[in-house]
Amino acid sequence: MLQITDLHAETAGKTILQGLSLQINAGEVHAIMGPNGAGKSTLAYTLGGRPGYEVTAGSATFDGADLLALEPHERAAAGLFLGFQYPVEIPGVSNLQFLRTALNAQKRARGEAELSGGEFIKLARAQANALGLDPEMLKRPVNVGFSGGEKKRAEMVQMGILAPKLAILDETDSGLDIDALRVVGQGINTIMRAPDKAVLLITHYQRLLDYVRPDFVHVLAGGRIVRSGGPELALELEREGYAEVAA
Ligand code: ADP
Ligand code: MG
Ligand code: MG
């Protein structure tokens, strides 16, 4: 599904990714762990197409197509979802407006029929109920006045509605209490654990991996993957620290 080969990327004139290769197949959950400053967020931003992050060498294909040639909205329409640590607040725009606009824009880009208002409300209510978010909250402005846990539930509802093929979640677990962590874990498992979907979890700590068991764990250090293994590698990192394992 995602094939990254020898990726080099820079931001603000500084080379951050230096030959990163990674293959993610449908049905797999991968975790990338690494010390602060290793380039984890740079990888997420680069794959998402964020302005200011420039690829200088290497390639990334998504379902066989050149991901790096696509605009950010085209990457989303192709089935890429990015989640970040700090959800954005959008005063004046309700969750329902935001989500319906995003979903229908993606459907248009794929040449699919858009959902009517009624169809969309039904879908949104069903997703909110499935993920334990009071559907009434969908009428409120995006994330404004939401608690940390509510923001995470809303993000999972967003992911459920957009139904991406690949979710890249960058430290989405940082600063969460146990209840919110469980919400994120259940959301990822419910929405994304499927034979035709895949997940890339970027995390500094292994505790989210107690809820979402990865098939593969990779260590990112110095802008490339320096070690790969199974779930046990996350426990080894937690026990021994990055310096030891990445050396
Ligand atoms: P991580 O997510 O693993 O903590 P980042 O990808 O955020 O690492 O950062 C990798 C390196 O790139 C760090 O040295 C960081 O200071 C630098 N960096 C990231 N974004 C920028 C930016 N916008 N401007 C300048 N330096 C940046
Ligand atoms: Mg960081
Ligand atoms: Mg980061």
UniProtKB/TrEMBL annotation:
Record's keyword terms, sorted: ATP-binding, Nucleotide-binding
Keyword set includes ATP-binding: yes
Database matches in SUPFAM superfamilies: P-loop containing nucleoside triphosphate hydrolases (SSF52540)
Alphabetized Gene3D superfamilies for the sequence: P-loop containing nucleotide triphosphate hydrolases (3.40.50.300)
Coiled-coil spans in chain: none
A Pfam family matched in the record: ABC_tran
MF terms (GO), sorted A to Z: ATP binding; ATP hydrolysis activity
CDD domains noted in UniProt: ABC_FeS_Assembly
Domain ABC transporter span(s) in chain numbering: 2-247
Family: Belongs to the ABC transporter superfamily. Ycf16 family.
Name of the protein in question: Fe-S cluster assembly ATP-binding protein
Native species: Sphingomonas jatrophae
Lineage, uppermost ranks: Bacteria, Pseudomonadati, Pseudomonadota, Alphaproteobacteria, Sphingomonadales
